[in-house]
Amino acid sequence: MTVNLTPEQVLAGLGVLAALVWVWRAGTRRARKAADAVRAGSRVVSLAGRVLLMAGAFVGVQWIVIHHIDNRTLLLVALVLPDLIAAHVLTRALTVTEIGTTRRRGDRR
């Protein structure tokens, strides 16, 4: 059995094949972007949960010290220590130490 194809049919077949490859690659890119967006969103929610938990812990300890202990030194420590921790964390978070993006192995430029 022989197949007789005209040059137009060969070019049409190559065009269809190229279109399929293009659609497949576009779908892969779209899926990767969606996965990155979900990952970034979950990081924000996770960070917010941890921040709220620690804030609750600080407020709880401060409330106990303010209402149940008459020691002035302990009161100052309970009020100042969380401020120092928050100042340190905010300073580190807002300080730019590297300019540019970091690339992982296999990322495209």
From TrEMBL:
UniProt entry tagged with the keyword Transmembrane: yes
Transmembrane segments: 6-24, 44-66, 72-95
Keywords recorded for this protein, A-Z: Membrane, Transmembrane, Transmembrane helix
Protein name: Uncharacterized protein
Lineage summary: Bacteria, Bacillati, Actinomycetota, Actinomycetes, Pseudonocardiales
